[in-house]
Write a structure and sequence with these properties.
Strand content: under 5%
Number of strands: 0
Number of domains: 1
Largest sheet: none
Distance between the termini: 40 Å
Helix content: over 70%
Structural class: mainly alpha
Order of helices and strands: HHH
Number of helices: 3
Radius of gyration: 12 Å
Length: 78
């Protein structure tokens, strides 16, 4: 059950990041963005000493991480 909740939250966070960055795509794109965003966000914020301890901070970290992933993808695509 925890896996399903984690995937649903990842999709939600990826969706929010996609909308913030003007991205259009299928549902699986948002799930992948949310998962990658959580990883990238945790890595980036961990480097500056920030540790996420609540759902709200996890959401912020994941959304910012997903925005970074979208930004890098667009830069590499050019």
């Amino acid at each position: 059950m925890e896996l399903i909740i984690a995937l649903a939250l990842s999709a939600l966070f990826g969706y929010v990041a996609g909308k913030l960055m003007g991205l259009e795509g299928q549902w699986y794109v948002y799930v992948l963005l949310g998962l990658a965003g959580g990883f990238v966000g945790s890595l980036l914020f961990g480097l500056i000493g920030f540790e996420s301890r609540s759902l709200i901070s996890d959401a912020i970290v994941s959304i910012i991480g997903a925005c970074v992933v979208i930004f890098l993808y667009r830069k590499l695509k050019k």
